[in-house]
Structures are given as C-alpha cells and as structure tokens.
Design a protein that fits this description.
Blueprint lengths: L25 E4 L6 H17 L4 E6 L5 H14 L3 E7 L2 H10 L4 E5 L8 E8 L2 E2 L3 H12 L9 E3 L3 H10 L12 E4 L6 H8 L6 E3 L22 H9 L4 E5 L6 E5 L4 E2 L1 H15 L4 E5 L4 H9 L3 E5 L3 H11 L3 E3 L5 E3 L9 H15 L3 H7 L9 E4 L2 H17 L3 E3 L4 E5 L2 E7 L5 E8 L2 H17 L8
Parallel strand pairs: 2-3, 2-4, 3-7, 8-9, 8-10, 13-14, 13-15
Antiparallel strand pairs: 1-5, 4-5, 5-6, 10-11, 11-12, 15-16, 17-21, 18-19, 19-20, 20-21
Helix pairs in contact: 1-2, 1-4, 8-9
Length: 472
C-alpha cells in the first residue's frame, strides 16, 4: 500500500466522522476520514479538557508515517489556540510520549500515530492527567468537538529532545544484567518509529546486535510493522538464522507492541512472553496479580497460578489493561497483541523497547536461552489470532447475538470481552476489534482432533449469527 499525506491546507476540511472516535483512541484513513482540520479540532478539544481540569501543559509526539508531521503541526496549532502550552518532542515511538508525560510536569499527552494499521491510517492516542482516554471519555471528546465550545488562549511552544533521557532510563533496567552472558540479537523496527531509538540504544548494550529495517520510512517497504502476523516476522527469522543469533525482536509501527522469536526461529506469542516476565517477577513479588487479555492461552493463566501469582483475565485493549492494572494494583500485564505493561520499577504503560531489554536481562540472569524457555512451555495445539473481515456496523451486533446464543445453550462462557467458550475440547473465543473492521478469534484444543472440533464449532456458530467464515 502507498502511504498518503494529510489533505492540503487549502483543501476543504473533512467533517467530523463519528466512526474514527474508537474505544481506545481516534483513528482513521487520512484524506478520507481525518485530515489536518480534524487534527486542529482534536487539539482544540483536548485543550478544552485540559484547561477544564485546571491544566496548562501538554506533551505531543508523532510517529514516522508520511502524514504525521502535518497532522502534528495542525494539532499543535489547535492546542495552542485552546490556551495550552505544548512540548513537542518530535518523531518518537509512543512509549516516549508516555515517558515524557510521566517525567516532565505536564497535564496531558497526545501521540499522533496509526499504530499497527496500514500506512494510509493515522490517529491520536491521548492521556489526560496520567490516565489514558478511552471508552466513554473518547465519545465525550467527540461530542465536545461537535459542539465547538472550546477554550481559547495563546499557548506557547517548546521543542524538546528526550532521546537521551529516555535511553538512559531504559538502560537502568539492565543494571543487574550479566554482561558476560549477553546474547546475540537481531532487531527489526520494521521501518517504524522505534528505528532511531533502537539504533542508538544497541550501541550501548553488551553482546552482539544486528539491525534490519531500522530506517524510519512511513511506506513500510520491507513488511507491515505488525509483529502479531507470522509473515511479518519471516525476514527477522531469516536474519536470526543467517547471523546464528540467540533471538530476534520486532516492534510495531509506534513501538508499543513487541514480537519475539527464539534462536530456532520459533515465535513466542504475547501470552508466552508474558509468562517469561511473570516467572521472573513473581520471585520478587509472590502472589502478585498478573493481568492478561481474553485471547491469552489457558497455559498462561495456569502457569501464573502454578508460580504462585494471581492470574486475572481482562478485556483486550491497552487503555483498558492500564486502567485495570491501577485498579487491581498489578505490577505486570500483557496482551496477545504484544502490548506488555510494566509497573514494577517503571511507569505502568506499554513499552516494547523496555520489554525487549527485560527479556535480555531475564535470560542472562537465568543463564539460559530463549529457546530453552520455549522448550519448557506446554504447546497445546491452537490457532494464531484469526481475523475475520466484518463490516463496522455488524461486528458488535454479531458478537451480541453470539453471546446470547451461547448463554441460551448453557455454555461455559466468559463475556467480559466478546465471548470465550470453554468445553471438554478446550476453548474458543470471538470478540469485535476496537481498531479494525474485523472479528478476532482464537481456538485452543487439548489435541489436534479437539482443535478441529473447536474450529468447526466456531465456524458454525458464527454462521448462525450472520458471518460466514468457512474453514480455516
């Protein structure tokens, strides 16, 4: 796909489209669903929220997409017109915006990013007074944007480079690392916003390091930067094999999601990686609450319990997980999507680069390879994350019909996010994506025959609710 720029400044601004105001953020196709006019309005609206809460200062950053600089400038203009001072930290990964908000006196933060969506998308992730804006708060922002009842003022602008402080904070996580056991690592930023940070960081790390796709390029020429899709990890697998590396690490487009493969090229999915973190953390915090989303394997929940932790299944979504961590006082959480959240000696947000360094620290402390850890894991047959295209207007009604159907059948199901059904064969899940026009599904069986029965049941039940997916 070809990335597109934001609409020219002399073009008629797009109207506000309600569909781009999603569960966790604002996101849509540039030039069709949002443009620089939208960005200005978002800035004005967010400034109004900040000033209404007694605030004055907002951090802003943007990713490497071609449309991001113009959207950033428009958003900054809107923030300043709303009476808010802006600290512009430039083209950075999303976690650096969170870091800036956590370490610089500020009342809010905006990251302009399309995250893991295709190049033509972009959007806005927002934090107000340390809390992510999501759910009803995003809808309230939409209503305020429509009203035009904005604060006014003349905010200032400060340009600040936080690359060095952020890198130093990341390196603090390696203070007790056994440098003599440092592994050989291949890094793949996927031409996303982590490229510059990772390139600078690896020169300060012990061990051998190889970089691929480190140049920030909003067209994503090598592969799409979504490490939850197997085909996007093929180049990393090849590079690990060619360099005889111990592991490979990949990031999504804005650096808040991580993908990891071991030295044999095997993928550690989000729930497996979370178990590695949990195994380490629970040695220091016995009984700690570890949160995972509904897509995670039963292996994860059983594994955390066996390690003496308290596993909690929760709704998918980075904003929802962060809120749950604060509510439950959880030091660690993760999602199948590769979002990993760290509150032990960190800030509680999802930071894929920090998560990557923790993997290195844990492995050197334990004196084993990632392949060794992988070999300890039960491997029940399961599907990867399945993504079934579904019209935006249909996806939530289909899930609601499915929930009702399962409850009427007396199924053993969890409905905190979609429907997860457990049977004697294993479990299957369907939930509506909050960021894309898809239904997300997974199946995990006790053996291959059981998995096939679960897949057949899932296909049948979706068809009964209005979505034909066939065999998969």
């Amino acid at each position: 796909m070809t990335a597109v720029s934001a609409a020219p400044n002399d073009a008629a601004p797009l109207p506000l489209i309600p569909q781009i105001f999603r569960e966790y953020d604002i996101r849509g196709v540039v030039g069709q669903e949002l443009d620089v006019g939208t960005a200005t309005t978002v800035g004005r609206t967010f400034a109004t929220l900040v000033t209404a809460a007694g605030g004055k200062r907002v951090v802003l950053g943007y990713d490497g997409r071609l449309s991001s600089p113009s959207l950033a400038q428009a958003c900054i203009a809107g923030l300043r017109a709303g009476g808010v001072d802006v600290i512009n930290i430039g083209m950075v990964p999303t976690p650096m915006v969170y870091f800036a908000h956590a370490t610089i006196p500020s009342d809010g933060a905006i990251m302009i990013t399309g995250s893991h969506n295709p190049p033509e998308y972009n959007g806005f992730k927002m934090v107000l007074q340390g809390k992510a804006l999501y759910g009803d708060a995003v809808q309230d922002l939409y209503q305020l944007a429509k009203s035009g009842q904005f604060s006014t003022g003349q905010g200032g602008l400060e340009e600040r480079d936080l690359a060095e402080p952020y890198q130093q904070r990341l390196l603090e996580s390696l203070q007790d690392m056994d440098s003599a056991k440092a592994p050989k690592v291949v890094w793949d930023p996927g031409n996303g916003a982590t490229g510059d940070v990772v390139s600078a960081l690896v020169g300060k790390l012990p061990g051998q390091h190889f970089l691929i796709n480190a140049t920030v390029d909003g067209t994503f020429p090598a592969h799409h930067p979504d490490p939850t899709v197997e085909e996007n990890l093929q180049q990393l697998q090849q590079a690990v094999a060619a360099n005889k590396a111990d592991l490979g690490i990949a990031f999504d487009g804005d650096g808040d999601r991580i993908g990891v493969i071991d030295g044999q090229g095997r993928i550690l999915w989000g729930d497996q990686l979370l178990l590695l973190y949990a195994e380490d953390l629970l040695q220091r915090h016995p009984g700690a609450t570890i949160i995972a989303d509904v897509k995670a394997s039963q292996v994860l929940f059983d594994g955390v319990a066996a390690l003496g932790g308290k596993p909690v299944m929760w709704k998918a979504g980075h904003s929802l997980i962060k809120a749950a961590m604060k509510e439950l006082d959880s030091p660690l959480a993760g999602e199948m999507s590769g979002h990993m959240f760290f509150a032990e000696d960190y800030y509680g947000f999802d930071d894929a680069i920090y998560g990557a360094l923790l993997v290195l620290r844990i492995l050197t402390k334990q004196g084993r390879s990632l392949a060794d850890f992988y070999d300890t894991l039960p491997q029940p047959p399961s599907t990867p994350e399945l993504r079934f295209p579904c019209e935006e207007a249909d996806k939530f009604p289909i899930v609601e019909r499915l929930q009702k159907r399962m409850q009427e059948q007396g199924a053993d199901c969890v409905t905190i996010d979609g429907v997860r059904v457990t049977t004697a064969d294993g479990w299957w899940l369907v939930r509506a994506s909050n960021t894309q026009n898809i239904l997300v599904a997974r199946c995990e069986g006790r053996d291959n025959d059981a998995l096939q029965r679960l897949k057949t049941t899932l296909s049948h039940e979706l068809a009964a609710c209005g979505l034909q997916v066939g065999s998969f």
